[in-house]
Amino acid sequence: MLTLALLIAVQASAEAPRPGPIRTFGDWVVACDNVKACEMTSLWPGEGQPEEGSPYDRLAASARRAAGPTGGWTVEFQLSDDRKDALRVTTEAGLDVRGTPREGMLRFSGAEAGRIVAAMATGTRLRVGDETSVMGMVSLKGSSAALRFVDAEQGRAGTVTAAVAKGGRPATTVPPAAPLPAVRFVRPGGTPAPFPAKLRAAVDKESECGSVYEGGTGDLPPVERHALGDGKTLVLLPCGSGAYNFSTRPYLLGAGAKPVVAAFDGEPGMAPEGPPDLVNARFDAATGRLETYAKGRGIGDCGSSAAYVWNGTRFRLVEQHVMPECRGSVNWLTVWRAQAVGR
Hints:
globular, 2 domains, disordered N terminus, DUF1176 domain-containing protein
C-alpha cells in the first residue's frame, strides 16, 4: 500500500511544475522552492558595481532555511580570497560570531546562524574581518523584508519560529515540510540514430537554424546526438550563438520517423512564445539529465538554469535556479526541485 507521502508525491509529479516565488527587497533576493525550502542572497548595494577595492565587492552572503517546524538556518559567506585564519562576523549593533573559512567559504549553522539572522533583521550591514580589519561588507537593506517573506512562505508568521514576524503560537503550528514530487524517467540506453548531412540540411532549412550562421566562415557547428532509450534519440541542433551563450534546438528522432521538436514542461527557451531553444545545453548520459544554463551577462551574476529528464513523452523539469538581478550574485536561487525516479 502506498504511503500518504508517496501518494502526494506521485500526484504532484503528474502536474505541471509550479516553481516557487522569487522577490527582490532592496539589496537582497529571496526565493522559496515548490516544497518551501527558502534562500536569500545578497546583492551589490545600489545599481552599479562597487568600485575596485570596495569592501562590498569582496563578500557575498546567503541564508537558507529548511521548511517545517524544526527547519533551521544555514548562513554562508563567499570570500574573495582563500583565507584560512579565524574570522569575525560583526554588525554595528554588537553581533560578534567567529569561525574559520574553508575553501573560500565561511559557514554557520545552528545557534550561530540564528544569531546572525537575528542581527540581519535589525542591522544596516554585516562585516567580516579579523581582529584588526574588515575584509568585506554586505548591505542589509531589504534583509528584514526578505526574512519576513520567508516567515510568510513557510507558514511561520505569528509563531515562535519566525525570524521577523514573531508571535506566540508554538512551532507545532508550522506546516510540515512537503515531500519532493517524484518524476519518473527513462534511463538512457542504446545507440543514437544517425543524422546524415542531407537530413540536417532539411531540418536547418525548416527551422531556419542554419540561416543564423550565414556569412560566417568554416563549417556549421556539429550536431550532438544522444540515445534516450526506448528507441529515441535526442538531437541538439545548433541554432545561434553569442559571446557566452550557445543555443540549440532539441529534436527527437525515432525509427524512420521525421525529426520533431521535443516537448518540455513549462517554457525552457529564452523566448516563451517561440520554440524551446536551449541555452548552453548539456546531456549527461549517466544521469539522464538535460541541463541548460543561460547567463544574463558574461560574469554570470544573473540568468537561469534548469535540468530535465525524459519520461518517454516529454522532458520533465527536475531542477530550476533563477537570479533576476544583475548585481553581483552568482548564487542563483532554487525555485523548483523534484526527485527523478528511473524506470
